[in-house]
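Exam revision sheet. Question 4 asks you to relate a sequence to its structure. Input first:
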Amino acid sequence: MSDDRKIPESEEETKVGNSSGSEFEPGEVVEEELVEGAPVKRRGIYLLPNALTTASLFSGFYAIVSAANGMFDNAAIAVFVSMILDGLDGRVARMTNTQSKFGEEYDSLADMVAFGVAPGMVAFFWSLNELGQFGWAVTFIYLAGAALRLARFNTQIGSVDKKFFVGLASPAAAACVAGLVWCFHDVDPATWLTFMTIVVVGGSGVLMVSNILYRSFKDLDLRGRVPFAAIFLVVLIFVVVTLDPATVLFTGFLIYGLSGPFLALVRKARRKTGSSEA
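Answer key, C-alpha cells:
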C-alpha cells in the first residue's frame, strides 16, 4: 500500500511564498512595515512590549485563580498590577519604536482577560455568586460591556479626539470593581454591600458602552518643564496612596467613573440655558 503524501526533503520545501516572492516559515507572524516610505515584510514579533503584555495577561489570570481560592485582596491587587503593566507595554513600544499590528491585537486580547473577565469573576466569587442567576447576569453585563468597549475602541483608533475616551475605559472600570473588592474584602456580607457591588459592577459595564466622554489625559505634556513645586505634589500623591491604597484608589477611580455622567449633565444643562436665552 503506497502513500502518495509528499515528505519534504529539505527545509526549503516547508516554506511558503507570498506575493512579493519572499519566503517565510509556515505559522510565522509576518507584518508589513514602512521603511523609508517603501513597504517591507518582516517576520517575527518584538519581545519587550509583548513580554509586558504577557505579564499583564498572567496577572489577570492570577486574579481569577486567587478569587477562586478566596484570596480576594490578592486578586484585587493583581488587577491593579495588570493596569500598570498595560500602561507600560504601549509606552515602551512607542519609545523603542516597536509598535506592531500583532502587538495591538495581543494587547486587546490580554485586556479582555485582565480588565473584563478577571474583575468580573473576582466580584462574582466575592459577592455576586450568592444572588444566583441575577448575580451571574450582573457579572455578564460587565463582561459584555468590556468586550464591546474594547471592540469599539479598536475601530475608533485615529477617528476620535485623543483627548477623550468614548465611554469609560476598561482599565478604569476594572479599577472601580477591583477597588471595591480590595476595600471591603474583609467586611462581613451585608445587604448594603451586595447592593453596592451590583451598582458598581453593573454600572461600570453600562458606562463602558455608553457614549459619555471621559478625559483621557493623553494631551498632558509630561516631557515639558514644570514648576519645582510640581514634584512635591507628586510626592504628596504617593504619600496619600501609601497611607491606604485600597481606599484611595477605589475613591479616585470611582470619582473618575462618575465624572463622565456628571459633566455630561452639566454640558446638557448649559446647552438648554444657552438655547433658552437665544
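Marking note for examiners. The beta strands are 16-17, 23-24, 30-35, 38-43, 164-166, 213-215.
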